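Hey, resending since the last one bounced:
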Amino acid sequence: MRISFGTFSMEAPEGWSLSSIIMSGPIDEAIKLGPTTARQVPGFQRNLITTFEEVGEGVTNEAYVDRQIEGLRQAGVPRQEGAKPLKIKLGSGADGLLTEQVIQGATGERVRQMQLVFIKDGIAHTAIASHLDGAPFESARAEFRRLLESFQ
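The structure tokens again:
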């Protein structure tokens, strides 16, 4: 299998699989102190992380998201729900589950994530679009939604 993206192209050896992809957006200006930041945060690079995981037969999008949330809780990651889960239909016809959460980053900043989960052929596909909570995320919300809904 050949993996290609822009100028990157590489042949994956037999038996190997793709487990994650990280895409980075442009670096934004430094964020000043405000209601959603405990300290000034240097320019943040919005990003989209996609992971792939084999799951058992009958695992639903909702059950998979619940398992992810439990993993964050067990790891001690401060997290709060950002929006009610929304079932969506992807261009391929697959059912997806769109969620939002706010987590505390490693250096104390609040990061909002819009996440899409869909299961296809026994593989859970998780795409997480992240930016700083508040105005930075809101300015990227429509772009994130378009990116996530483009998955097939």
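The helical segments are 61-74, 135-149.

Sorry for the duplicate.
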